[in-house]
From TrEMBL:
Molecular function in Gene Ontology: G protein-coupled receptor activity
Taxonomic lineage of the native organism: Eukaryota, Metazoa, Cnidaria, Anthozoa, Hexacorallia
CDD domains referenced in this protein's UniProt entry, alphabetically: 7tm_classA_rhodopsin-like
Positions of the G-protein coupled receptors family 1 profile domain: 31-195
Membrane topology: Multi-pass membrane protein
Subcellular location: Membrane
GO cellular component labels: plasma membrane
Pfam families documented for this protein: 7tm_1 (PF00001)
Stretch forming the signal peptide: none
Biological source species: Desmophyllum pertusum
Protein name as catalogued: G-protein coupled receptors family 1 profile domain-containing protein
Length: 195
């Protein structure tokens, strides 16, 4: 492979990445916005499940508006970021909003699963908490904000040759792996062989 063909292939890959990200951005923006609009404006669409789906669409809009433009820019400039106070703030907000979106989506899916469980197993005894969808949505977002708030403290634009906003770190692994190792592994009971 000659250097010129490698450069041409790299440019082609970048433009393909930008095109795909642009198409996903448009579909995600229009689909999630339409979902939210329908649930908010059509009273007959305000079932518990549909309200939870709209809540997840709001979380997905956070992902669309924060991560997708960053993904498109990442194909061209990598982790390079702009410096100063504004660079520091946007680096923190970018990583926080991506993590917030993921956390809110996961918690919403958990509540949808619980709602469906109670609807199938206890069709006449649905918990009154799940019926109060505004309270459930508020709890989802508060828990999501609390669980992802360390991102606002940790991430920062690093002033190296080019200013960098790192996309992964040992801190994230620390938040995930340490609790799993601490609480996920149990000591064998007496009489059981250790593995």
């Amino acid at each position: 492979m000659t250097p010129l063909s490698w450069i041409h292939r790299r440019r082609h890959t970048k433009s393909l990445c930008l095109s795909c990200t642009g198409v996903m951005f448009l579909f995600s923006l229009s689909g999630n916005s339409l979902t939210i609009y329908i649930v908010l404006t059509k009273p007959y669409m305000r079932s518990i499940t549909n309200c939870l789906i709209a809540n997840m669409a709001i979380a997905d809009l956070f992902m669309t508006l924060s991560a997708m433009p960053y993904s498109a820019a990442y194909a061209y400039v990598g982790s390079r970021w702009f410096g100063g106070t504004m660079g520091m703030i946007t680096c923190k907000i970018l990583h926080f909003s991506v993590a917030l979106s993921i956390a809110a989506s996961i918690l919403t899916l958990v509540v949808i699963a619980l709602d469906r469980f109670f609807a199938v197993v206890y069709p006449f005894k649905r918990p009154s908490v799940i019926r109060k969808i505004s309270v459930v949505s508020t709890v989802i977002w508060v828990l999501s904000i609390l669980s992802t708030s360390p991102y606002l403290y940790y991430y920062k634009a690093l002033p190296l040759q080019d200013v960098l906003c790192p996309s992964s770190s040992g801190f994230v692994e620390f938040l995930v792996i340490l609790p799993l190792r601490t609480f996920g592994s149990q000591k064998p009971a007496s009489g059981e062989p250790s593995r």
